[in-house]
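Sample log: PLD1 Phospholipase.
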Amino acid sequence: RWLVVKDSFLMYMKPDSGAISFVLLVDKEFNIKIGRKETETKYGLQIDNLCRSLILKCNSYRHAQWWRQGIDEFIRKHGKDFLTEHRFGSYAAVQENTLTKCWLFRPLLCLQATSAVFFMYLYFLRLSPEIFMKRPVVEGNRWRLDCILKRKA
């Protein structure tokens, strides 16, 4: 399995099929813990955000420390905009001088169409259905993309 680390999320996937097993968004509560007491595994690494946790099992404590340091350094350097709260309580920073604005999902939520249209959007955008469209997550799975699509369809 592969752990893909980007500036705004971590993704756990199967390399042979490309199937996404788990997506964890970087937010203000992003935290990495290691050790048996924190993870309940012998050599474990627990990565948390506001609503989810991912536990990785490692071969040794040193290996877990190496993973923690690598992920933490990358996120603190490249994902720092997602670690703090921004204007209007948003998780994302305001982007100046861009050619587009991030209003891509508003039409998706307002459409009244068949499920085929929604899944076409998913395929086109290459999104995981586990992505939460509204953060922080306070209403369970209500704002998960697959749940929104199911309600709209």
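Observation: The chain has five helices and six strands.
Observation: The mean pLDDT is 76.
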